[in-house]
Amino acid sequence: MAARTSTAETPKARTQFALDWLRDHASEAARAGMARFAIPSDHALGVSMKDIQALAKQLGRDHDLAAALWSTGVYEARMLAAYVEEPEQVTPAQMDRWCRDFDNWAVCDTLCFVLFDRAPHAFAKVVQWSSRRDEFQKRAAFALLASLALHGRLGDESLYADGLALIEREASDDRNFVKKGVNWALRAIGRRADWRTEATLVAKRLAGSDEASARWIGKDALREFANQPPKASKKAPAKKATKKAAVKAPQKRSAGRTVGSRPRSTA
């Protein structure tokens, strides 16, 4: 990413520069259109992702700026934080703090896809967050798992089996944004040529489940697997693990259902 170009050097001044820039590039039409994608606009300005990414390139990486942007609570500022944060400075505590703030799928998925999956402790957060009760915190576990799989950042091959076990364990959670996150993670692992067979086995078991959400997750994944060939996977440095965990169905437990179903998202 480009080096800083703003003359404002303090985090406070750079944050104000960014907010002013975002307001200058906002439109009410864009803000109103967010509802079509099930994104709340209460704290949004109405700035396109293209413009947010352009501003991120202008600002460059800046850990202090990212923290200040996040603290504003502004939707676009938080999206911008994902692009200007320095991945090597992201700590587990910071990931937890930001995850607790997730209130929509767009911020959740963007943070996981462009930032959190580059942290060395990313998979530990997948495991931890997969048991969260909050809908978007739990979605973050599977959005992060999907991102790690798609980007080939699960260096230890045994983690793919562990990920499939988490998917199967949580597939009965019928909340809209959770089940779509679980489905995304399953399809992401199944896109890898060396894990397509195991992902298909999990999808078939889910498709035959008595739980409606598990059936939807499994059937949707099977449709994709039938229509899209897997992609060749990069060789991982670690020795490939046995896939016993993925083939054997894990012990089932009831999923938390403390939040009602949300409108269908595009995620």
Topology summary:
Blueprint: H1 11-24, H2 28-33, H3 49-59, H4 63-71, H5 75-84, H6 92-101, H7 105-114, H8 122-129, H9 135-150, H10 158-170, H11 176-190, H12 196-207, H13 212-227, H14 244-247
Helix pairs in contact: 1-3, 1-4, 3-5, 4-5, 5-7, 7-9, 8-9, 9-11, 10-11, 11-12, 11-13, 12-13
Description:
This protein is mainly alpha-helical and 267 residues long. It contains 14 helices and no strands. It has helices at residues 11-24, 28-33, 49-59, 63-71, 75-84, 92-101, 105-114, 122-129, 135-150, 158-170, 176-190, 196-207, 212-227, 244-247. Helix 4 (63-71) packs antiparallel against helix 5 (75-84) and helix 12 (196-207) runs antiparallel to helix 13. The longest helix is centred in the middle third of the chain and has 16 residues, at 135-150. The chain is globular and about 55 Å long. The protein starts with 10 loop residues before the first helix and ends in a 20-residue tail after the last helix. 43% of the residues are buried.
Task: Give descriptors for this structure.
single chain, 267 residues, mainly alpha, 14 helices, 0% strand, globular, disordered N terminus, disordered C terminus
Low-confidence spans: 1-8, 236-266
| Average pLDDT figure | 88
Structural class determined from secondary elements: mainly alpha
Order of helices and strands: HHHHHHHHHHHHHH
- Beta strand count: 0
Give the C-alpha Rg: 19 Å
The major sheet is characterized as: none
Give the terminus-to-terminus CA distance: 26 Å
Q: Bin the helical content.
A: 55-70%
Separate helix tally: 14
Which range does the strand content fall in? under 5%
Q: In one word, what is the shape?
A: globular
